[in-house]
Design brief:
728 residues; alpha+beta; Ubiquitin-like (UB roll); Creatine Kinase, Chain A, domain 2; Four Helix Bundle (Hemerythrin (Met), subunit A); 3 domains; 12% strand; binds adenosine-5'-diphosphate; binds magnesium ion
Length: 728
């Protein structure tokens, strides 16, 4: 019996780690060599053009047309010298991936030659055939056109032989159709709000940048096995599959050395990443077999987002070269650890200060406390906004599973900082503060750094944890574009900081000294944000009950998590700060729901196909083997065989029961799908997929997995989980 599965398994056995196509020199010699960064710009641009681009990068200033022409020319020369033949506008549509459309540099001339050409107009704006990107109805109502516009704040780069120009993607009526536009706006808003608050502490602070350090988790699966699993290919996860005898109980992968083939992949990935200026620094095995993680040094949030998307793109390409396929899905294997993308977030000033890093003295610690407490308050007031920002069909499988952060948003800060906040809350008195009270307070505030050094407790079960000098948003999914989470965090914190500034100014106007005003206002925030602080086990049932008592929501699926986007408060907040208009929010809500529906629709189809064309035929073929055996037994032993073949008959009945289970549940699912597809309203349709179609996946899987348990291994065509997880 030769099946695709067996052929793939044979292939895997022959595999060797690939020879390496990397430079063994010092990283400093090739770092950023494929980026049109400041060094390259200095070398290729006039002083005037250089200043103009740097101003655009730092302050968002406009670039004049003649300068754009100069920049385009310089970019082209730089890119051609590096072997580039094409250019593309690179953007981040709401599908979650990145998009590009390549155009060649050459232009034919009238006398039959060709010249390489690239003008400012091509750099600044392009019209991709955009009708196929999700737009939530924005483009349909006006005209079916959108355009990409150069974003000079991220540098251009070369991948392969293509010059990639980072752009934003907007409709002709000016609405954002991507993740980048609102992210840039949110970063601008937090800059202003945080810089204003910083004036209480240091007048030299003129700019605050939100920083992001992501940690990307992923699985590597052999390409041959992957190709024999249509569900992995189409939906990114295994829709069927019996848990292997050995899972991750032994934790031997986590602590083990990185397998050779995977290591070769990582080395090439790192080399290519570093050339693109992606500061990849760490690599290691993760908890599940064949699961890994990599993380860079943190960067300004928009650059970090670009770099994460670029990295994911590189990973796909390089994995293929090493006969792997990379799985970004949050839960590719039921019952095995999923993948996340922790978003480490902080705020850094132009003076080099991390605002979430405890200082050395009471003054700098008051600054720390201000940003720390305001962040907690922002989450306390807007947990549903954070939850919506990470909602997706794929992340639904991970949130609330017993190894991932729960779907309930809470903040973990560690017992010592908790005590510190409780103490502050209790010890600040209304009215004028006595000098003794102030000294006492300052002393306790001054203790923070020392306390933190001793504070090693780390709560892995919290979706939003303070980890010493940054917050770590752990509930972000591994497939996500981090922009979504970054837009949410920076928006709600900016809004909170602005409110804080107004309140403190008010107190100062009424006669409080600055420090006193700050402390008193912080006390109010501490009090008002208590419900969001949780130090216990986030995976426990207890927390679900406790959270309910506290009035915290526990949205277990995407349709319910996204609902907040239709609320007045959500629209008011985002439109007030000019990050997203109501129309853009409506469109995004629609797009998110559509993405959700499409993903489930694909899964449903693939699952039906697999069952009908692979699982059921295998079951029948196996039954026929048993039947053949029964007939043979009867031929030899006559009526005596009746008693002798009890096990065969039991087996036959068992297979038949689950075969019928698969068959009937698939039919039921098809019916439910038809009903769901007929629903017009997108939100209701998503609900139908969520509550009527999806639950049947589990039932089908149950029966199919029972069949996998007993059916002759040679008849089973789909690579088994143990093969996907343990082949190296
Ligand atoms: P771990 O959380 O695994 O213990 P680290 O604390 O060293 O590891 O940091 C993990 C991630 O946090 C890295 O990607 C790093 O770049 C990022 N990080 C560190 N400091 C900051 C910061 N100030 N702002 C944003 N991200 C940061
Ligand atoms: Mg971490």
């Amino acid at each position: 019996m030769s099946s695709v599965r067996y052929a793939a398994l044979e292939e895997v056995m022959q595999r060797k780690a690939k020879g390496l196509n990397v430079n063994n020199g010092k990283v400093s010699e090739f770092y950023g060599s494929n980026v049109f960064n400041r060094v390259a710009m200095r070398a290729h641009l006039t002083e005037e053009a250089y200043e103009s681009v740097v101003n655009a990068m730092n302050h968002g200033h406009r670039i004049e047309r003649d300068i754009a022409d100069q920049v385009a020319m310089a970019m082209k020369d730089w890119a051609l010298a590096k072997g580039a033949t094409h250019y593309t506008h690179w953007f981040q549509p709401l599908t979650g991936a990145t998009a590009e459309k390549h155009d060649a540099f050459f232009t034919p001339t009238s006398d039959g030659r060709a010249i390489e050409q690239f003008e400012g107009s091509l750099l600044v704006q392009q019209e991709p055939d955009a009708s196929s990107f999700p737009n939530g109805g924005i483009r349909n109502t006006f005209e079916a056109r959108g355009y990409t516009a150069w974003d000079p704040s991220s540098p251009a780069f070369i991948i392969g032989t293509t010059l990639c120009i980072p752009t934003v993607f907007i409709s002709y009526t000016g609405e954002a159709l991507d993740y980048k536009m609102p992210l840039l706006k949110a970063l601008d808003v937090i800059d202003k709000a945080a810089t204003d608050v910083c004036q209480y502490f240091d007048k030299n602070i003129t700019k605050v940048r939100a920083t992001l350090g992501w940690e990307q988790e992923y699985f590597l699966v052999d390409a041959g096995l992957y190709n024999a699993r249509p569900d992995l290919m189409m939906s990114g996860r295994t829709l069927l599959g019996q848990m292997p005898a050995k899972g991750q109980q032994l934790d031997d992968h986590y602590f083990g050395s990185i397998p050779e083939r995977a290591l070769a992949f990582m080395q090439e990935l790192e080399f290519e990443s570093l050339k693109l200026g992606i500061p990849i620094k760490t690599r290691h095995n993760e908890v599940a077999p064949n699961q890994f993680e990599c993380a860079p040094v943190y960067e300004e949030a928009d650059v970090a987002v670009d770099h994460n998307l670029l990295l994911m793109d590189l990973m796909e390409k390089i994995a293929r070269k090493h006969d792997f396929r990379v799985l970004f899905h949050e839960k590719p294997f039921a019952g095995i650890n999923g993948s996340g993308k922790h978003n480490n977030w902080s705020l850094g000033t132009n003076t080099g200060v991390n605002l979430l890093s405890p200082g050395k003295n009471p003054k700098t610690n008051l600054r720390f406390l201000t940003f720390f407490v305001n962040t907690i308050k922002a989450i306390a007031d807007n947990p549903d906004i954070l939850r919506a920002s990470i909602a997706s069909a794929t992340n639904d499988h991970r949130l609330g599973g017993n190894e991932a952060p729960p779907a309930i948003i809470s903040v973990f800060i560690g017992s010592q900082l908790s005590e510190m906040l409780d103490k502050l809350e209790a010890s600040i008195k209304a009215g004028k503060m006595t000098p003794e009270a102030k000294t006492e307070l300052k002393l306790s505030i001054g203790k923070i750094p020392q306390l933190l050094l001793d504070n090693t407790d780390r709560n892995r079960t919290s979706p939003f944890a303070f980890t010493g000098n940054k917050f770590e948003f752990r509930a972000v999914g591994s497939t996500a574009n981090c922009s979504s989470a970054m837009i949410a965090i920076n928006t709600i914190v900016a809004d909170q900081l602005a409110k804080f500034k107004v309140a403190v100014d008010e107190r100062i106007k009424k006669g409080d000294k600055k420090d006193e005003a700050l402390l008193k206002e912080l006390q109010v925030l501490i009090k008002e944000s208590k419900k969001i602080r949780f130090e216990g086990n986030g995976y426990g049932e207890e927390w679900v009950k406790e959270a309910k008592k506290r009035g915290l929501n526990n949205f277990l699926d995407t349709p319910s998590a996204l609902k907040v986007m239709t609320s007045k408060e959500y629209k008011k907040l985002f439109s007030k700060l000019d990050i997203l208009s109501e129309r853009e929010i409506d469109a995004r809500y629609e797009v998110e729901l559509e993405n959700y529906i499409l993903k489930l629709q694909i899964e449903a189809r693939v699952l039906g196909d697999l069952c009908n064309t692979s699982v059921i035929p295998a079951a029948i073929a196996y039954q026929n083997i048993v039947l053949e055996n029964l007939r043979g037994m009867k031929e030899v032993f006559g009526s005596a065989s009746d008693k002798m073949t009890n096990s065969q008959k039991e087996l036959l009945a068992y297979v038949n029961k689950h075969l019928q289970g698969v068959y009937s549940k698939v039919n039921e699912m098809v019916e439910e799908r038809k009903k769901a597809n007929a629903v017009q309203d997108t939100a209701k349709k998503a609900d139908a997929y969520c509550h009527k179609v999806k639950p049947l996946f589990e039932e089908i899987k149950y029966h199919a997995d029972r069949l996998e348990r007993v059916i002759d291994d040679e008849l089973w065509k789909l690579p088994k989980l143990r093969e996907l997880l343990f082949s190296k």
